[in-house]
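My current task is to audit a protein record that another person submitted. I have pasted the whole thing underneath without changing anything:
***
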Amino acid sequence: EEEGATTDNLDGFINDDIDDEEVEEEEEGGDVQETKSKRRKRGSLDALEEEDLELIAENLGLEYDSRKGRRAHFESDDEEEVSKGEKGHHGDGQVAADLFGASDEELEEERTDVWEGRYDNEMSGQPREVAEEILDSEEEDDFIVDDYGKPIKRRKIHDEYSDSAIREAQDIFGLDFDPEAFEKLAAEGMESTDEELEEFVEGDEEEQDLKQMHMKAIRRKRRRKKATVQDIFEPVELERGHLTDRDKVIAMTDLPERFQLRVCPVQEGDELEWEEEADWIYNHAFCSTPVSQQSYVEQPSVDMWDEEPAKPRSCIPKIKAVLEFIKSASFEVPFIATYRREYIEPELDEEDLWKIWQWDEKWTQLRNRKTNMKKLFSRMQEFQYEKIKNNPDTVLTDEIRVLQDEDIQRLMNVETAEELNDVYKHFLLHYGADIEELQKSRRNSSTRDSSVFEGWKHAYRRDFFTICKENGLSGLAVKFGLMPDQFGENLRDRYKSHEPEQHPVEPEVAAEEYLCVDGHFSTIDAVLHGARHMVAMEIAYEPLVRQAVRQAFSKNAVLHVKLTKKGRKEIDEDHPCFTYKYLKNKPINTLKDDQFLHLTQAEEDGLLTTSLRIDKEGSYGSPYFEEIKQLFYRDEYSLLVEKWNSQRGQALSHALLRVLYPEMEKELRTKLIQEARECVLHMYLKKLRSWLSVAPFKVEPSAESWDDTPYTEKEGGPLVLACTFLPDKNAPMYCALVDGEGENVDFIKLSHFMKRENSRIEQEKEDKKRDIESLKKFLRKTRPAVVVVGANGRDTMTVVEDMKAVAGSFSLTDEMTSVNVEVMDTNVADIYSKSPRSREEFPNYPELLTAAISLGRRCIDPLLEITALYASPFGEQQSLKLHTLQNCIPSEVLATAIELELVSQLCRAGVDVTSCIERPFWSSSLQFVAGLGPRKASYILRTFRQEKIFLENRSQLVTVCKIGPKVFLNCSGFIRIDTSAFTDSASMYIEVLDSTRIHIETYEWARKMATDALEYEETVDESNPSVAVEEILESQEKAEKLGDLDLDAFAEELERQGYGNKKLTLYAIREELYGPFKDKRTIQYSLSPVEKFILLTGETPESLHEGKLITCSVVGVVRRRPTSDMIDQVNPERVNEHSWGCPFCLKSTFKNIAEVWQHIDNGSCPGQGIGVRTRLENGISGFIHIKNISDKPIKHVEERIEIGMTIHCRILKVNLEKFSVDLTSRSSDLADREKKFTIPKDTYYDYQQEEGDDAQEKIAKAKPKNAVNTRLIRHPCYHGCNSSKAETLLANGESGDAIFRPSSKGPDHLTVTWKVTDGIYQHVDIIEKDKPDMFSLGRKLIIGEEEYEDLDEILARFIQPAASNVRDVCIHKYYKATDPGDLLKLSTHLEEEKRKNPSRIPYCFSASTQFPGKFILAFQPYKKAVSEYFTPVPDGYRFRKRVFDTLEALLKWFKQHYKDRPAPDNRSMHSYQTPQSIPTPSIPSFGGTPMMISPLLQPSPSQPYTPSQPTHWGTPTPKMFNYKYNLKPS
């Protein structure tokens, strides 16, 4: 009654507005432009030059056309038809009006002039009514805008393409309409029609005249036919743009859009159903505890005396009230949480309401499935009844199980999906074979109801149970003495309430009567096996048994985890499964948060195996089986009973091990994964909520502002200067100035700002100074309130310091106080800069600049900018990573959860519809208002744009947009209206309460409270009933009088009048009158040291912690200058007979002791080294004290460390503020045998299994030398494999691919294997010199007489040129690729060529298989073929101890000197010995550079590579090869 009264009052209010609609429309006139001009505080302009107008329009982000002079919004492209003189006349005035404001009379006069001009030019000769109709239709096109509010450019074409559906599609998709394509299509259709009509016209003259008239009428009708949206766009595009017929129905239906789009739409019910559902939701959503430990779940008390659940039972009536609001009144959650607080608080909050909303969908699904199953059960009952009725002589044997009413009642008592599945499986076991016959009978009958069989899988196969049943073994199964439901009751009660009935004969004797000589059961054992199978299946699919076993399995299940061979290599300290990679007998209730999801991911990657068991490993037998079998046995001691108990035990074991345990494990695994996913989703939403709940940036009231600011700060907020850059000194930095409304006002490009001011290059210094001066001028001109720098690595701090220095220079000159310089994450901005949205809005801007604009908008309002990303139709939200496991959450589930979070946040903050109209880049926020959605929000915005008005009061949602009362009640309270902007100019009544969160149904109460607070008489001013409210909102002093009101008494009076308990609502109204739409979001603060460290380095406490094993490069030595006391205690050291050394810096170039003392006394000595400065791969600085360098005491750092070395260390301490770490490189710390740095393992960690695997690995390593030497070499072409493995890896590669690998000659050799041609590989020896240790790469690499610095140089200087020469040979026209090295076939080929042309000397090439890397040059000067060898080398081709630059030069010289062959080489092709002049095949061939290596040969990401830097330190560990940060090859 209360809700009905409220709706009636609202209907009356809405009807009043509708009655006055015509009057309001007449009074509106052109006040919108004047209102808009006042809001933006623009001045007026008499006259400007055209160039000035273009410049102003460009700076303000407007689109100015010199011919038309109109803004981008609300413009008509058909204005191009205006004559040149009229364009010049109206253009300047219109731009001035758009930029600085204009009166309504001027705008109306200009519109009239334009219309008259268009009529005179275009419609001459046309009737006035026709011209008005055509021009009116063209005016509608003025408001066809794209996603960003810009008009769509359309060519003027025939009126047949003015369909509103086409304009609607172009509004959403931003696509241009191509009329030519449709004209062509229409022409083709007309041709076919003409052909048909020509056939139709045949006949006498009168008939021809008559039919000709029909033909003309048809043609006119076809010309009038309009193209539809379905003719233009693909179905996928229509769905994405919400243009399907279903979308239109959803948009116009008076029901919240989310109610209609839910998987199970919201359905009404009655009181009894709400009570039943409320109790069900309370038990399953608020009282049931998860199987694993989840930190986000409110755990119930563990006190044995306190059995109170997390939520008291007093919340059940409130859950029912929420369900009634949702199902009966169609209220969304934000509306209930805001305006129906009395019905839910204090037991429930908004998060609980969303949980009720989600569980209501689950309840609906469960109820629908139960209803369908009940129909199926009823049909089966009827089918059995008809079957028995038609065959009255049929005897009901044990094989026939009649479906009873108790089965249907058990179905209706089901409360979970698992129980429903149990009932259905039980049904299929006994009646699955009859379903096909049932379907046939239903099809043959007159009443057909296919809905009974929808939603369920009825596929049935003839399994062993059916075979046993058909052979009559049910009778033997019954003789086991206990029915499955009786055994289920025993399990449920944990008491043998049903004793098995003992059959009087032994099982073997009882089985004899079921023998079948020709069938499956020809022996007694087969018969008993079949009977046991039937008993086992009946037990396994009995719902009571399954429920009891499920509970026991969930309670007692333990987890076992073992590593695979691959996992032992890849799971290191950085892997999340490191602390629980070996588990034994871990109870599943000790799993925490997302642990099981990490294990599942690792198992899918082949790193480990997991298993869930009900019995602990190591226990004797199966305790659970031993416990429950007593409930199935008969307690007697006789041979007969023992035999039957044995049969019973085998059947029960079969039921558990073969059916129940595997299914229960699968169910439990699914449940654990689901709980872990919910945990990940909760953490994802928590991170997202921390971003969304940040308030827009505001200037401190006490802060001084700039003087003479040229850019006016708009009402939305202050000016923000956002800066983005790349960590490259040659890349520019962009600074975008964003105003309070999110518009890009101005920007500057600083091309040299990333260069160092103290650079050694003078040109860089000058460039940096010029950019600093440019930035100062820009700041002086724009004067922002804050500077935001996008975080991009460690260079961010340098940029911040430079920005602070520039901003601080103004405070020194007293121009202003210093500007705050803040750091902000760029993840949202980076996604926007690469999205189609940025290309649509700023097509000519670089990505860095658009990222800066997005960064500034996020500072202006984080909620709106992040919402725009998540509402994008281009899938940008998938690129935003807030959790490492978010990809494990189904995309539909994640999208729904994000939508609900955005709905809550935006309803708390409120959405300004006028702002959405003016700023299309933030217009997507309207769809998250309660009651609305993307379809309804798009319809509302499109309506206001087409009507050329703004939302001035909430009643316009009904009068203009025609939305229904249900949607209006939901959304009206969350829509913000700045009534102060319309007060002076609006012709219609402006309700000041529309600018508050107060709902329209309680406006009278708010007016009553304001009137009583100011002690006014209760006389209603019809022209302005909210006068008292206006005074309170304008005066803080008057607002304080609200505190004197007795709201409790007011609430009692309202309750007496039948409005119910409205106490909390009244207090909320008073709070809102104190400050309308007060922003409750947290204020933006500067980042803490921890947040800044994580943001700039990308490291977290989990990835960078004390004890972590890392690699770093030595960049310098830290020295301490000697003090006077230190100088007195030491003496110079004599190095040899001719030189002396300094005892501090160890410099040893002094000729005598006097030079040493002079070196010390004059301060030239840098001092003694006290430690080493290093740099980690992530850019963080490190320091190793001299005492932590080695276990052995060292006096001088230079004894063990050299600059440029790569060493392994452990972290001792992390200094967040200085972005540095303290390290140790001592061998004892690296080995960590005392477990000082080891991360604590899980309580149930299986150390025994780990030790066993370690022992097996040691045994495998101890096997003689088939294993490959382990080397610490990080290079993309290096693989720790043997020659055969290398050839296998190269088999699918291209000619020239190469692999470096360990050499069997020892640790001071390497081998490079490269592919010559298909099936031919060469292995080349490389000698290493100057090795830091036996595992690292030598500083000098020698091949033959050539010396190289690193592997890249070998590839670049030696292999790549040789590879090019080989390719030239292979593409030569005389090269024979088939059967390489086959001298006999080459000889045959040459003999054939010689016979064809005896005067010619034929020759050809072929690769040598006997000597890989060499090629055969075969020729036949006379009767016999002769062969020689030549070798491609980096310098060209080596042939007869000569080197030729090109193959052509070699052949030219060969043709001139083929007779001058050395004597040892003059041998025929039939001599298969290698010419002695050919050196041994130790010359390496060619390969590709790192960028040329085929994908097959690319290294794994776990192998970091540092070019030209030898790796240092002792025995490598898997950790060293799997470090997180990988250096890319140069």
In short: The first strand starts at residue 558 and ends at 563. The chain has 56 helices and 27 strands. The chain has a mean pLDDT of 77.
